[in-house]
Specification:
about 300 residues, alpha+beta, ten-stranded mixed β-sheet, four-stranded antiparallel β-sheet, 6 helices, 14 strands, disordered N terminus, disordered C terminus
């Protein structure tokens, strides 16, 4: 006897999967995430000397600025306090950056280091005009205007004495003779990946910035300019760091480089040790100040005597 099984009635048919073209898997390792940097809260002048300046890795410093500096941050908040009859006509060097590209904008393939590169120029303009155009938005421009002005690495406090009283000397730097620079610009301005011959105390006054940093040992993978170039301390990569496979194209050696990353807000600082590679990107309208100094030499020591490690 043969038993025939009847298929069970079903109110709906199961859809068969539609064949698709297999996705091509990338054979490259993913771009590693950046590492956070250690934070130190409220370093005193004593702990700055004993703990911070001896650190070979970057540090994130918070809650250490004196009250006079905090008052200045409040006073400068809308940037109008920077404009005075004394400051209006002072000529300042301004980087004109197109599309958020820095002074290495052409990746080293054109004329660089002499004041002009593709997507970047340096011009002199009155400080009042700079503020009106790029910080206070008092001069109208078309929606597709993609030029940003950046006051970068300029000792504005010496040029405008009244402003220097707003930021009195930091007690943390009393044993040193620091070189001071002010940085002022709108969102998306960039200082490309580079390293300095001296350590750097970078302080954010207004707005937010992102710092990307890499150890000195990363140099062979950072596509540096030739040793005979004025930009020999700077990477040819035109951004702060490749953040996608598309941006990594042509810069493949940077994929596996260990790096740190930190966002700093008002009143925060970053200690950048001597020789550490770093790039700085403005995330919004910003004002920053930095101090370069030789941590091995202190005021009162005999010339040429090394102290502090």
């Amino acid at each position: 006897m043969v038993i025939r099984l009847q298929p069970r009635a079903c109110s709906r048919q199961r859809a068969l999967p539609i064949p698709t073209t297999p996705r091509r898997l990338s054979t490259s390792a993913p771009i590693p995430a950046a590492l956070p940097i250690q934070a130190i809260r409220a370093p005193t002048p004593a702990t700055f000397l004993s703990d911070v300046i001896i650190s070979p890795v970057p540090l994130h410093l918070t809650d250490f600025l004196p009250l006079e500096w905090l008052d200045t941050i409040k006073r400068w908040r809308n940037f109008t306090a920077l404009r005075t009859p004394e400051s209006d006509g002072v000529l300042i060097p301004v980087e004109l950056q197109k599309g958020g590209r820095g002074y290495n904008a052409d990746g080293g393939r054109g004329v660089v280091g002499d004041g002009e590169a593709e997507g970047w120029r340096r011009v002199d303009m009155p400080f009042g005009l700079f503020l009106d155009t790029f910080m206070l938005d008092r001069i109208p421009s078309s929606p597709d205007f993609n030029i940003r002005g950046y006051l970068a690495q300029h000792d504005l406090l010496s040029s405008i004495p009244t402003l220097s009283t707003h930021l009195p000397p930091l007690p943390h730097l009393a044993p040193f003779r620091p070189q001071t620079n002010l940085w002022l610009g709108p969102a998306h301005t960039l200082t490309p990946l580079h390293r300095d011959p001296l350590p750097n105390l970078f302080i954010q006054l207004l707005g937010r910035k992102r710092l990307t940093l890499a150890p000195p040992s990363a140099a062979p993978k950072l596509y540096l300019h030739p040793q005979n170039s004025v930009l020999r301390n700077t990477s040819r990569f035109p951004g702060d760091w490749p953040r996608s496979e598309e941006e990594l194209r042509g810069w493949e050696e940077m994929r596996g480089v260990r790096r740190w990353e930190v966002e700093v807000g008002e009143g925060e600082a970053v200690w950048v040790p001597r020789g550490v590679w770093h790039a700085v990107r403005s995330l919004e309208k910003s004002a920053s100040v930095n101090f370069w100094f030789d941590e091995r030499h202190r005021v009162g020591e005999e010339e040429g005597t090394e102290v502090g490690g």
